[in-house]
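Render this sequence as a predicted structure.
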Amino acid sequence: MCDFSLEAVRSRPAKVGDKLTTHTFNWGTRGFCAPEDPGMAVCLLPGTELSFAEDVREWAMAPWSSRVISYRTAIFRQVNKEKAHTHHDALEFPDGKIVLLTTLKPGQQATVLQLPAEAQKAQPEPAATPAAVRDLIDANHLTLVD
């Protein structure tokens, strides 16, 4: 998914193996883009696993510094979905820390390792046919009682 603030930006869904770059789009919102097309946001599904080329860097309060998150893997999440007009796209790191994607420094390289599994739809149980019921009765030497 792409954050609400990226709705006006061209976008496409992520694929396994995609090389992505953190990028600042219109109005200062950060997200992922494909390095060959910085104007197109690449949208991730919650649960997508990423691997970064280096330790992840987050903007700090002072513009000349950054905070290093000492991990190179993360899982894409969406947070605060009940709140409209706020950033939802986030990364969860192995220690459980969740960081908004828009707080990451631009220019960081990541690879999509795995997309989330799609939920399996429950298959309805086939109804027993009269012939199948007779076969079960015969196989178990039972008698049908009315």
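Summary. The chain has one helix and eleven strands. The mean pLDDT is 81.
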